[in-house]
Structures are given as structure tokens and as C-alpha cells.
Amino acid sequence: MFEPTLRNLLPDTYKEDFQLTLSNIEKNTLLYKVHAIAEPGSPRVHIGDLVMTSEFTSSYFGDRYLFFKHQDIREDTKLRPEWEQHLEVATSQGCPFAKVKKAVASLIQ
Question: How many structural domains does the chain have?
Fold first, then answer.
């Protein structure tokens, strides 16, 4: 879990160019406190920090081709079926990321 330390910098109503805002963050600024839970029911443990170690830099490669794939929780529950009882659906309308993925796929077609 990532606990943001600069939440006031990008509120939910934020509509500006986020890259401009990021470029104003100073080197050595703590961006997130990182926590983990070993398994459902375990306490949250602080495992590290995400710190801006240099000035913000945009790049063609990073802006166009660098993406991160998140592990699907269903892969974890295949290995640990007892975890499934602890899962909660965030919304009755399904995962918002699945909706974005579906929308992008329909645009590509």
C-alpha cells in the first residue's frame, strides 16, 4: 500500500498538467510511505519509502512505452484459496481499471 505524503498537491479536483506539478517537486522529497501486509488479518508493516532522488524528467520512452503490470489478485488466491474470503469488491459496478482497459480496447478496434 502506498500512503501519499503530498496528497494536497494533487487533490481529487486537480485538472492541471500533472507533469508541470511533478517538475516542481524538489529532490529528496518523500512521495509515499510504503506498507505491506503478509496475509489477510496481518498487521500493516512499513517496508520502505518512495523518495524523489533527482529532478523530475520526462522522456519519450517513459511517456509512451513504460507501463507497469499489476498482479491480478486471482493469481494469489489460486495459491492461497483461504484469502478469497477476505476480499472485498471496491464497487458494485466492478473494477474501474477493467473498465478503462475495455474502453481502450474498443478505441483500438
Answer: 2
